[in-house]
């Protein structure tokens, strides 16, 4: 379930719970059938109301998607910034960021799927906002990677961060292990990938030295 970010305007608890229920149902449907394969009546049916009744909470299906992806991005940014602000040792911070992303992906597989597939379906204002939030989250990772590994340059750190997101966010498509086992596997693989990051020139030199 999507929770409002800390600085979101307060809404009556009952209304916020209903909005969360609608967004959770919409996320499951969007993940399963695609954004364009789901109608407002489908979402209403999933939460036990008529489709038009949803307009008391959201002005359109586009608005649902916009709030959904904006909330995901705000939650990730807030979680990443909170961990970065602790002043933890760089490698410890990197581990905390990996575990945070792994937990979010495992606990919210439908949201991860919707996020991965539907950025292009956002309205222009929502897309700009989500992209801005995502860039700020990536910067936290880039700074953490470079602090932990000073020999990694900025482009390599950025590429490594996106590669790790791709690895972790593939979890909605994996059902071979239970939650705890999958978390341990993904955390170990992600940390190994990030800690093995190198600038392209260094990586090429290392590869040539093995020939």
TrEMBL record:
<feature type="DNA-binding region" description="H-T-H motif">
    <location>
        <begin position="39"/>
        <end position="58"/>
    </location>
</feature>
<dbReference type="Pfam" id="PF17932">
    <property type="entry name" value="TetR_C_24"/>
</dbReference>
<keyword id="KW-0805">Transcription regulation</keyword>
<dbReference type="Pfam" id="PF00440">
    <property type="entry name" value="TetR_N"/>
</dbReference>
<keyword id="KW-0238">DNA-binding</keyword>
<dbReference type="GO" id="GO:0003700">
    <property type="term" value="F:DNA-binding transcription factor activity"/>
</dbReference>
<dbReference type="GO" id="GO:0000976">
    <property type="term" value="F:transcription cis-regulatory region binding"/>
</dbReference>
<dbReference type="GO" id="GO:0045892">
    <property type="term" value="P:negative regulation of DNA-templated transcription"/>
</dbReference>
<dbReference type="InterPro" id="IPR050109">
    <property type="entry name" value="HTH-type_TetR-like_transc_reg"/>
</dbReference>
<feature type="domain" description="HTH tetR-type">
    <location>
        <begin position="16"/>
        <end position="76"/>
    </location>
</feature>
<protein>
    <submittedName>
        <fullName>TetR family transcriptional regulator</fullName>
    </submittedName>
</protein>
<dbReference type="InterPro" id="IPR001647">
    <property type="entry name" value="HTH_TetR"/>
</dbReference>
<dbReference type="InterPro" id="IPR009057">
    <property type="entry name" value="Homeodomain-like_sf"/>
</dbReference>
<dbReference type="InterPro" id="IPR041490">
    <property type="entry name" value="KstR2_TetR_C"/>
</dbReference>
<keyword id="KW-0804">Transcription</keyword>
<dbReference type="InterPro" id="IPR036271">
    <property type="entry name" value="Tet_transcr_reg_TetR-rel_C_sf"/>
</dbReference>
